[in-house]
Design goal:
A: about 220 residues; mainly alpha; B: alpha/beta; Rossmann fold; 6-stranded mixed sheet; 10 strands
Chain lengths: ~220, ~250
């Protein structure tokens, strides 16, 4: 096989992307756990750990830059590296959304709940599942799976709309809930954004496989 | 930079008559890595490479000053045994310079000169090992009696590398080893060098910047006889310290 060394570099890069994805998934899951349990200490830890996600993203980016500078990749090799650059920036931003949820938990403090948390954990579960499968599709170069995941974004959007309307009605009913309900709307918004960024990853997978950049999912938000 | 220093030049100057081809070169080449030396034509890169096994001694009116320390010994000392130095530090050239002999005799040649092996079995074993290391054994094992000129240029260049390896060198110097080869053969030779660096210290002179970027761990950039910059290849090609290097590798001059 020609350019065995380069193929190894690419494999290594993919491993690192997967590792970054796992860090982000853990951050999202932990942020929702912290919200459910109102765990301030865990939230602080999530905020602190975001720096590790950021660092990993920059490390991967640096490797991509080195590969472009030294290996002169073309065609699918070049698309792969461009895709990795895009995917890691999406992942890093998702990490920021998880960190944002951690910050909201701290703001929320020990105020009484507006309502039991049902749809928000459901949104998180859906977004995390989409993210995990998109990373799998990335490694497997599965454009079809990527397309299917994009279409699931609507479910998260609908849940967000539902949460928003419901919380709005709580606020109208009792203005004392406005601050707390707004916090929850932020959480919902962050989760909606995460799912939206999964679709960006999926679009990159399609680009990687087909060489054509298409916007598959136009988000409602 | 953390590495085992294999070759070190200290204040190295070289003159061809009145012309100073190398100016105060101070360079530390790490062991078991690939180091590329790049720079425009006439910058002194081949001259520097030839210093490492004292090939410049063969050119008249050459004067060398400074030190070249290889494994703690200054090889510029007059009592250096040049035969054993050149066995330890093999060289591969731009065009494959196979001898007009059979593949077998090409490989046996160096062994005979250096009186390294006597027994036929030992010789065959060494030849097999040499050809295996360069990935030629499978295709040539039944053709060892063929004239080596019948091989493709890439095979000939591989044979030249095998001829060096068979003498169990420490260091392999390559002067534009791929300039006569097509891009695919070039990539294959580069892959071979990657495999060989586990065991050998490799120094390659190339005018092909992409090759230096792809195939080396360390890069030295030379200009008008001076070593302008030396560093890890990743660093030199992404963030060179000297503006001159930046301008040259990005194609702004040269």
């Amino acid at each position: 096989m020609i350019r065995k060394g380069f193929a190894e570099h690419i494999k290594e890069l993919e491993k690192e992307v997967t590792a970054l994805g796992e860090m982000v998934i853990a951050a999202i899951n932990r942020s929702i756990e912290a919200l459910k349990a109102r765990n301030i200490a865990q939230s602080k830890q999530i905020i602190k750990d975001d720096a590790l996600i950021n660092k990993k993203r920059w490390d991967i980016e640096e490797k991509c830059i080195n590969l472009i500078a030294t290996q002169q990749p073309v065609a699918s090799d070049l698309r792969e590296i461009v895709a990795v650059l895009c995917v890691v920036s999406q992942l890093e931003r998702m990490g920021d959304y998880a960190e944002g949820i951690g910050k909201i938990v701290i703001l929320y403090g020990d105020e009484p709940p507006v309502k039991p948390l049902v749809d928000i954990p459901r949104m998180a579960e859906k977004a995390v599942s989409m993210l995990a499968r998109s990373l799998d599709a990335f490694i497997k170069r599965d454009a079809q799976a990527a397309l299917a995941i994009c279409n699931e974004d609507d479910e998260v959007d609908l849940l967000h709309e539902q949460v928003y309307r419901e919380l709005l009605s709580y606020m109208i009913e009792d203005p004392k809930t406005i601050t707390r309900a707004t916090y929850l709307i932020w959480v919902s918004h962050n989760l909606e954004r995460i799912a939206d960024r999964v679709t960006n990853i999926c679009e990159r997978i399609i680009f990687l496989v087909t060489g054509t950049m298409t916007e598959v999912n136009v988000s409602r938000y | 930079m953390e590495f085992v220093r294999k070759i070190e030049t200290v204040g190295l100057n070289l003159y061809y008559g009145d012309f100073q081809a190398l100016k105060n070169i101070n360079m530390r080449i790490p062991g078991r890595n690939i180091t590329a030396i790049v720079g425009p034509s006439g910058c002194g890169k081949s001259t520097l490479l030839r210093c490492f096994n004292r090939m410049n001694d063969l050119i008249e009116h050459t004067k060398v000053e400074g030190k070249i320390v290889i494994d703690e010994l200054n090889i510029l000392e007059p009592d250096t045994d040049l035969i054993s130095l050149r066995r330890k530090i093999g060289m591969v050239f731009q065009r494959p310079n196979v001898f007009d002999l059979s593949i077998y005799n090409n490989l046996k040649f160096g062994l005979r000169i250096h009186r390294m092996l006597d027994g036929k079995d030992e010789i065959i074993q060494a030849i097999q090992s040499g050809l295996e290391q360069v990935g030629l054994w499978q295709e040539l094992k039944d053709k060892l009696g063929n004239n080596s000129r019948t091989l493709t240029l890439e095979q000939q260049q591989r044979l030249c590398i095998a001829r060096v390896l068979i003498l169990k060198p420490d260091i392999i110097l390559l002067d534009e080893p791929c300039s006569a080869l097509d891009p695919i053969a070039t990539l294959r030779i580069e892959e071979l060098l990657q495999a060989l660096k586990q065991q050998y210290t490799i120094v390659i002179v190339t005018h092909n910047m992409q090759q230096a970027a792809r195939a080396s761990d360390y890069t030295g950039f030379m200009y008008l006889g001076e070593l302008v910059e030396f560093g890890q290849t990743d660093q030199v090609f992404t963030n060179p310290k000297q503006e001159l290097t930046e301008n040259y590798i990005s194609g702004h001059f040269g």
